[in-house]
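The methods section describes the discrete structure representation at length, but only in general terms. Each protein is reduced to its one-letter sequence and a matching series of backbone shape codes. I believe one specimen quoted in the main text would settle the matter. An entry of this sort, consisting of the sequence and the corresponding backbone structure tokens, reads as follows.
***
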Amino acid sequence: MNHQWGDIYQVPLPLPFALRTINAYVIKGSSGVTLVDAGLNIDMDVQAWQKAQSAADWEWTDVEKIVLTHYHPDHYGLAGTLQQWTGAPVYLSRTDHEQAQLFFGRESQMPETMESFFAFHGLPDEWVSQIPAHLRSFHPWVEPHPQVTFLEPGETIRLGDVNYEVLHTPGHADGHLSFYDPDRKWLIGGDFLLPKITPNISLWPECHPNPLDNYLTTLAQMKELEVSRVFPSHGPVFDHYAERIEMLEKHHANRLREMKAFVVEKAGATAFEVCQHQFGSNHNIHNLRFALSETLAHLEYLRIRGELLIEERDGIAYYLACAV
């Protein structure tokens, strides 16, 4: 256990991919313990939870709630196993419960849908062919799936001994939830707002059609909230809340300008070509999937705003500048 703030303990859980660590949180109360986010179903994360128990003096039988900010594997993956060990309810938004099944259900056709989606946007065959197996490789990390109790924005939920407001903070995930303590002005923010890196904003099939607009709207709305401390899922706890929101708004404005300028300069480009220009070409399939989906989120934002258009040539989509 690395850090503690009052009743909140941070639990760093190792990840076997680029982010390296997710911060889960333990919140201790008079009637038990709440866990916020779960990590992956891998031995390293189970061991990290066991160390956290020793450091903060709690047992699986003390856990009264497991609360998930969103459905991505590093947050959701161990939740079903933790539920089996604790008997505790698992709370998640309805949208993200549905998307967990869409992306990680054994019967889902999302791997093939994603394969076609990326091929349409110019991803070369040698990468496209890796997509289905790559997506299905997540199954062992997220199974068993938990039985979920749905949380709705606007509700309150008791975490430890404190009542938190449930806030819908979409963009990184369509049903992403954050939790706000209005007395201390503390925000458990998941991946909504990170201190050092930019939350990935990705366009995925069968999900929100304009996730960047969704995220920028969230930033604008959340900027009005008075926050003294943010407990993020990646990076250290921080207090420069409003400034960080402004930095992210500027970041995305710059990225939109850069991508549009490249499309104009090339007189048309696939999303994959824009992705290579923006993020380079030294990727594995995991990182490339996110880089291309992030590129598409920006290109679709521009298209929906009427700044770009899309044209299909031989089954491949090209983004073009609109005639002035």
Q: What stands out?
A: Residues 196 and 235 are 6 Å apart (CA to CA). The longest strand covers residues 21-29. The mean pLDDT is 96. The chain has twelve helices and 14 strands.
